[in-house]
Amino acid sequence: MTRWVGDRMYKIMRLALANIRRHKSESILLGILIMLCMALLGGAIPAEKSANRIFPELWERTGFCKALISLKDEVDPELALEVLKEDDRVEDGQILHYLHGPSARILDKNGDESLFPCTFIDVENEEIFEDFALQSKLTDQQIAELEHPIIVPLNEKKRLELTEGDSFSVIDGAKRFTFTVAGFYESGYFYDTKFIVSDGDMAMLKNVFERCTDLAFDPKEGADLTDISKKWEERASALGLDVESAACLGMDDWSSNFYIEIFYVLKITEVLALIILIAIVIVIGFRVVTDIKEQIVQIGVLEALGYRSGEIALAYAAEYFLITLAGCIFGALLSMGVFSVLIRIFEGLKGYPVSHSADPLSLGIVFAAILLVVTLLAWIKARSVRKYPPVLAFRKGIGDHHFGKSCFPLRNAKGSVHLRLALKGFSSHIRQNIALTLVTGVTVTAVVLSFILYSFMGNGLDLAFSIAGCEMADASVTVMPETDPEEFVRDVEALPEVRKVLPASSMGAIFLDAYELNDSFMANVYADYSQTENIHPIKGRFPEHDNELMITKAVSTASDLDIGDTLRLEYGSIRREYIVTGVVTALFNSNSVYLTEEGMKQLDPFYTPTEFQIFKSEGTTYKELKETLDSRYGKSAGDLGQTDSSQGSYEERIRKRADQVISAMLEQSGATHVEYSIQVGDQVIGGSSSSIRIRSSFDMIQLLTSYMEQLCQTVSITTRLFMVISAAVVMMILSMLMSGEIRRRRRELGIMKGMGYTSKELMLQLALQIMPAVIMATFLGTAVSLLGVKLIAGFVGNIPISVPSVLALDLAVIAFCFGCAYLGARKIKKISVYELMTE
Amino acid sequence: MKAILHTEKLCKSFSNSGLQQHVIKNLDLEIMEGDFTVIMGSSGSGKSTLLYALSGMDKPTLGKVFFGEEDISSYSNDQLAIFRRKHCGFVFQSIYLLENMDVFDNVMTGALAVQKNSPELVKRAEELLEKVGIRKELWKKFPNQLSGGECQRVGIVRAIINEPELLFADEPTGSLNSASGRDVLDIFTELHEKGQSIVMVTHDLRTALRGNRVVFLRDGNIVGEHKMLPFGSDDEKKRRESLQSFLDEMGW
Known about the structure:
The complex is a heterodimer of chains A (839) and B (252). With 839 residues, chain A is of the alpha+beta class. Chain A has 28 helices and 24 strands. Chain A has an 11-stranded mixed sheet. In chain A, strands 12, 13, 14, 15, 16, 17, 18, 19, 20, 21 and 24 form an 11-stranded mixed sheet that branches. The longest helix of chain A is centred in the last third of the chain and has 45 residues, at 700-744. The radius of gyration of chain A is 35 Å and the shape is elongated. Chain B is an alpha/beta fold and 252 residues long. The longest helix of chain B is centred in the C-terminal third of the chain and has 16 residues, at 178-193. Classes of the chains: A alpha+beta (839), B alpha/beta (252). At the A-B interface, helix 15, helix 25 and helix 28 of A face helix 2 and helix 3 of B.
C-alpha cells in the first residue's frame, strides 16, 4: 500500500517538476509573488499581536488604574466617590486631581517649538493613577536643589532627546514654564504626555491649565464597566449630582487612541498582502486553464499511457504546491525581517520598547493557509482535465472549436489592423479579461489611493495645512494687554517684511464651555473671516453676526450639530446661544468653534485680541521678521526670560536677572505690569515691564510642521512603498499573463509571423489586447479609491483631490501597464517560424 | 525570363546536442519568373528546408539568397517578415488557418499585413474566394466547420491576396484526399497560367506534373533538373513518362 502510494506520488511529482522546468521564469515570478505575500502577512500578524501586548504589559508593569470617571467642576467628588464605592464591583476607588493642557506647546532644548498636548500631576495623585517609580541618575539631593523639577515619561525621553538636567519649556497661550528634568518614569497613560511636577509648580500651573478631577478605580475581574458607570450615574443623579454624560473610560478606550498610527501601518501591510494573494489566486486560475489547453495533446498521450485524469489534475496541483512551498519558505524567512521592521516602526512611533518574540504558530497558520488556498484552487481548476478523454484530447478538445459569431470582423477594419486584431483577441477571451480587470483593478486601487494619501500628507505638508482649520500665518505674536490692537496692526503692516496682520484668538488661549454637551471647545476669534486665507468652510458660510459661529467637522460629528442648529456656550458665568452657520475641516485642534469678535464679546464684554497673526512678505524669512519685530518693539517677555544674566557689568547682570523675574511674572503669574527697584549699597537700580510690548512670538509653520512630521513621514514611507510594490505586482502579473498568452497562441503567432507580421507588430497586438481590460480596471480602481478617500475624509473632514493629478496618474498607470505587457510579450521574438512549421 | 530568386552556395545546418547536421550543402539555384518549379527528393533530402530558406522563413547558415538584387540572407527576422509579406505567399501542408477567425478574416489577416483596408480589397477577397470555390455561405464559418479541401483553398486565397511575386507551397495536398487535392492543384495550375511564379515541394508524381520544371534534391544538393512544357499544353502521357524517366534516373 505504502509502495503504491509512493509510486503514485513519484509519478505525480515527476509531472509537476517537468511542468515547473518548462516554465521556469514564470514559476520563479509566481514564487516571488507568493514570497512577498507570505513575508508581509507573516510579519504583520505577529507584529499586530506584539503591538496588542504593549498596553496590557505596560499596565501590568505600572499597575495603572483600570478605569476613570471624569467629573465636572461643580460635582462634589467626595460624594461622587461614596456613591461609586457602594457598588461592590468597584475596588480601590480614589479621587484624582490633575491638570490638562490640550493645546500646550513645548520648546525643547534645541529651541524648537511644537504642539504638545500634556497633563500635569503631582506625586501624590500620580500614585493614585499608577505605581510610580522614579528612574534617575541624579541623587535625591540634586533633585531637591532643582528649582522646577519635572519627571518625564520614559517614552518621551528619546523623542525629546532628554537626559537628567536638561531644561525645556512648556508654553500655553503666552505663558511659558521652564522645567529641569529630574528623571524619568514608566507610565501606562497614553492619552497624552503626563509630566510629574512639584506641588509648588502644580499650584502655579493651576492658573493656566484646565483642572480635572476624576474618580479612579479598578472594576473587579469580569465586571461590566459600562454597567458600573450607568448604575453610578443613576444613583449620583438621584442625589442631585450633575453627572449626566460623565465620561467613564477604561482600558479599551485608551488603547484605541494609542493604536491609530500602528493600526494604519499594520492594515496597509495586511491589505497589500491580501491584494497580492488575490492577484496570485486569479493568475493561477488563469494559468492552470491555459496550461491544460496548451498541453492538451500531451494530456491525451498520458491518458493513453494509463495515467488517470485525477492523477494528471494532482500533478498540476502539485506543481503549484511546490512553487508555493518554495515561495512560502523564503517568505517565512523574509517575514522575520518584515516583523523586525514593523516592531521598529512601532517603537519609533510610540517611544516604548515593544516586547516581541517569534510567533511560530501565527507564521505556521499563514504558511498553511496560503499553501492550502493556492493548492486547492489549482486542483479545482485542474480537474477540468476530466473533460478530455484521450481521443478528445488528441483532437485538442471541443473548447478550441469556434462556432460563434466573429467579433470585430476585419472587412470593417479602419485604421490600424493591429488594434483590430487586438480587439478580436480581447473579445475571444472574455473570462480571462474579466479576471485581468479584477486583478489590475485591485492593484490600481492601491496605487491611486496611495498616491492621493501621499499627495495629501506624504509629499510636503501644503495639502495637509490646507485643511488645518487654522490660519497658517508665518508668525503668531501675543502682545501685552495695554497694547492698542488697531495701532499695533497699522504699525506692523507698515513694516516692509510684513504683508498682512490679522488680530485673532486661537491656539488655545480661550476655551468655551458647551455646558449642555459636557464638552469644551477651543475658540477661534477673527474680526473678519473674509480676510483669512486658510479657513475654509466645507459647508455653509463664515459667521458674520454676533450670534453666529462655525464648528469643525469633528464637533459636528461628535455633537450631532449641523448648519442651522443652536449651540449654547458659557464663558466665566455668561451664557449665550449661537447659530451654526458653517462647518470647517480642522486637522489641528479639531475640538474648536469659530466666532467673530462681536460674537466673543457676547461672552466676554472686555474681550480684545492680544494675538496677532503676521504674514511675512515674499522673500522674508521668519528670522528676519523676528529680528525686525525685536528691533522695533524690544525682546518679548518670553525671550527676556531666556537671557543670560551671567554676562556684563554688575548693573547689567542685575537688570537681566530682573528681566527674567519680570518675564516669569508676566508669563506664569498672570501679572500685567511689573516695576522693580533694587538697592545695592548706594545705588538704586529700577525698571519696569513698560518697555515690553510683546509677550511671546513663535513660528507657526514650524510648530505645526513638527506636530505633523512624524505622521507625515509614516504616511510618506508607507504610501511610497505601497505604490512601488503594487507597480511591481502589476508588472509581474502582466509578464506572466503575456507568457501564458504566447504559449497558448504559439501556433497562431507562428502562422502570423509566416504571413509576414513582424515580432514588434505581434507584441503590439498582444499588448493592445489587454488594454481594454486595463483601461476599465484603471477607471474602476480610481472610482473605488475615491470612495476610499471619502471614507477616510469622514475622519478628517476633507481630503482635497486634484482631478488633473489623478487623471494624469491614471494615464501613467495605463501607459505603465501597456509598457509592461509590451515588454512581457518580447518572448514572441523567440518563436521561430521554422520551428513552428516543423514541430 | 529573368531569375526572380537565386542562391549562392546556400548551406543550412542544424545543431543537435552538439552534433552538426548539414541539410543543404553549397546549393546554387535559380528560380525564374513565371516558372512553376517543383522541388522533389526522398525523405530527408532537404526539400522543405530549402523551401523555407528560399522564402525567408528560415535563415541560411552560410551562403546567400538573393531576391532580385536584394540579399535577404542578411536580413533580421523582422526584415524577413516584411520581405515575406510584400513578395511571397505561402501555402502549408498543415494549412494553418487561424482557428479563432472565420474564413473571411483569415484571408483579410493576410491582406491587411500589407495593405490598408478598402472596399476594393474586400471585393478582391470576395472574388478570390468565389474563384476557388468557397461560397459566400462559408465566409463566416470557422476552420473547424470546413473540410480539409475547403480550408486549403482558403489558405491559397490568403497566400495570393497580396499578389505576391512568388508563391511557395509545401506539400499543399499532403493532408487532403485525392479529390480535394486535385481541386487544389487545379487552382495552382490556373494561377501559373496567369503568370504566377510558384515553387512547390512535393513527393507526389501527379503533383509534380503540374510544374514546368522539376529540381531533384539528394543529400542537400541539386542532382538533377528536368524541364517540361506547362501542364495541359502537351501530351500528358508523354509528360508523365519523361518525368518518370527522369525520376528513375535520380533513383527516386
